[in-house]
Amino acid sequence: MDGKVKTGNEAVYYAVDILHTAIQQQKTVMFKYIEYTPQKKKRYKHGGRVYVLSPYDMVWNSDAYYVCGYSKSHGKVVTFRVDRFGEQVQTGRYDSSHFTARVQVSVSPTFYAWVFTYGGQIEILSLEPVRQEYAQRLQAALKQSK
């Protein structure tokens, strides 16, 4: 063992980066958690429930990353294994301080509200109709505040 932290899944590195940023900026993260069936098939735990976590710290133990934080759904501090976060999210580097994430969402007022909570830190890159509707909602909110 050469002392380097290793993982076989590149997506874990992006998740770790996102979690470290969330810890530093005291932001919450949302994710789906994977479990394995007795047949060693992956499936979402609790029917694909979205977990909301306020992460406090990350730990490397037994060749895996773990994140500790307050879980709204559990109502207490819990630990999750990072490589079991949902893998349907494709992430990549955009530049030295940004990343992209390709996600499937249900376009709804709840989705737009979630994007808005990041205060301009998230940009919707596509689809164009979704971008336009978000811009229209922002304009309507600005008009209401005058």
**Largest sheet, if any?**
4 strands, antiparallel
Structural class by SSE content: alpha+beta
- Count helical runs: 3
Number of domains: 2
CATH top-level class of the largest domain = Mainly Beta
Q: What portion of residues belong to β-strands?
A: 25-35%
Write the H/E string, N to C.
HEEEEEEEEHH
Shape: globular
How many extended strands?
A: 8
Radius of gyration: 17 Å
Average pLDDT number: 80
- CATH level-3 fold name of the largest domain: SH3 type barrels
Span of the ends, CA to CA = 62 Å
CATH architecture of the largest domain: Roll
Instruction: Extract low-pLDDT stretches.
Output: 1-7
Order of strands side by side in the largest beta sheet?
1-4-5-6
Helix fraction bin:
25-40%
Describe this entry's structure for a reader.
The protein is α+β, with helices and mostly antiparallel strands. The radius of gyration is 17 Å and the shape is globular. It has helices spanning 10-25, 109-116, 128-144; strands spanning 29-32, 34-36, 42-44, 50-61, 64-71, 76-81, 90-95, 98-102. A four-stranded antiparallel β-sheet has the order 1-4-5-6. It folds into two domains: 1-89, SH3 type barrels (Roll), CATH 2.30.30; 105-146, no CATH class.
